[in-house]
Specification:
about 400 residues; mainly alpha; single chain; DNA-binding; 17 helices; about 65% helix; TetR/AcrR family transcriptional regulator; Homeodomain-like_sf
Length: about 400
């Protein structure tokens, strides 16, 4: 009897780590598209499975999102707690950097999208990150300066976390070395005495004198507090004394209000940078002026800044394009000044450090509860300059 020489193929087996593959893919999608724009079908396609197969692992999108939002925090807690109690700051930051870089494509979900977690889940996530900050702060030596260990620790971790918020190509070893050094400089910052106050150069949004401007001014704080997807046109209309249908006489839709807010943020930031650089012939002075102005801008326009940073990924491509170009131009301004001060950096390294500086501002500001004062603005600017490697 003739037999088939080709052996019967084995039936495909389900990967043992499929749940982790799903979380990794979902984190990338949430990071790039935002919580509400992402769909379970899109996530399933990234994993190579069907949506029904995805639901066998997670009952709904929120459950999957909550696990993604906690991924970075859980990995950081695990990595730092595995180190001995007397581990050096260099060891702590290296461990944090390795975890963050390994999850670069998916780890940024927690920074902005976590506002879509329910209150209990949000509180748990905050406790995890507070534990990470405390773990670092325990190893920060006491200093005679005015910047507390917790603020410096959170700012340093913000520098590391910034790698999840941009796409600059850099090898993992080089990124780790750059970010660890930046974090070490941040925790060594003792005083903001060398930083001047540039708050007078921060432009303010125009006073709303039209219905269109009133709608925008009312919508931005709502978007910042509750997230764009959770704010209805009816709620915005009520805030300005209009019927919901009347909104359409001023904006084609809610997304156009968001786009207008993001454009306003980009315009104000560009204007602030121009004012900061006016009259600065020395690159070191220019970089210090940029940092002081950026810190002041971040405090003064906190709602506008957070909305622009968090919600841009949810905009349609045609509305997103001019904002991305504006961001690149702004980064280029910083990069040019930084490389003039630090010729040891190449263009990619400079961009990574500029983003690290922005990450410092976000996390230091949060640690200070965004309480606006001249002292807090100077503290944040000083920490930012330390991340960049600027020396007084």
């Amino acid at each position: 009897m003739l037999t088939d020489p080709t052996p019967a193929s084995n039936p495909p087996t389900r990967p043992r780590n499929r749940r982790q593959l799903i979380v990794d893919a979902a984190g990338r999608v949430f990071n790039e598209r935002g919580y509400h724009a992402a769909s379970m079908e899109e996530i399933a396609a990234h994993v190579g499975i069907t949506a029904p197969a995805l639901y066998r692992h997670f009952p709904n999108k929120y459950a999957l999102f909550a696990e993604c939002a906690n991924l970075m925090a859980d990995r950081l807690v695990e990595a730092l707690d595995e180190l001995p109690a007397d581990a050096s700051l260099d060891a702590l930051f290296s461990a944090a950097a390795r975890v963050t870089i390994a999850h670069r494509a998916s780890g940024g979900v927690y920074r902005w999208e976590a506002r879509y977690l329910n209150p209990d889940d949000r509180r748990i996530l905050r406790l995890k990150f507070a534990h990470v900050v405390d773990r670092v702060a325990e190893s920060v030596p006491a200093a005679e300066g005015t910047i507390g260990a917790e603020v410096r620790s959170a700012a340093a971790l913000g520098a590391i976390g910034s790698i999840t918020m941009h796409h600059t190509r850099i090898s993992s070893p080089r990124a780790e070395k750059l970010l660890v050094r930046a974090s070490m400089r941040v925790v060594e910052t003792e005083s903001p005495s060398a930083v001047s106050d540039s708050s007078s150069g921060v432009p303010s949004p125009p006073v709303p004198r039209t219905r269109r401007a009133e709608i925008l001014a009312a919508a931005i704080p709502m978007f910042a507090q509750d997230g764009f997807a959770n704010v209805s046109l009816g709620r915005i209309a009520e805030a300005v004394g209009l019927a919901p249908s009347a909104i359409y006489r001023h904006y084609p839709g809610k997304v156009d209000i968001l786009a207008a807010g993001c454009l306003q943020a980009a315009g104000l930031l560009s204007q602030a940078a121009e004012q900061a650089l006016a009259g600065c012939s020395d690159p070191r002075d220019a970089l210090a002026a940029l940092a002081s102005t950026y810190a002041a801008y971040s405090f003064e326009h906190r709602a506008l800044t957070s909305v622009a940073a968090a919600e841009i990924v949810g905009l349609p491509a045609d509305l997103q394009r001019p904002l991305v170009l504006a961001q690149r131009e702004h980064i280029a301004i910083w990069g040019q000044q930084l490389r003039a001060v630090r010729p040891d950096l190449n263009d990619r390294q400079a961009r990574v450090l500029v983003h690290a500086g922005f990450g410092v501002v976000v996390e230091a500001g949060r640690q200070l509860h965004w309480h606006d004062s001249d002292d807090h603005r100077r503290v944040v600017a000083a920490l930012m300059l330390s991340a960049l490697g600027w020396q007084a």
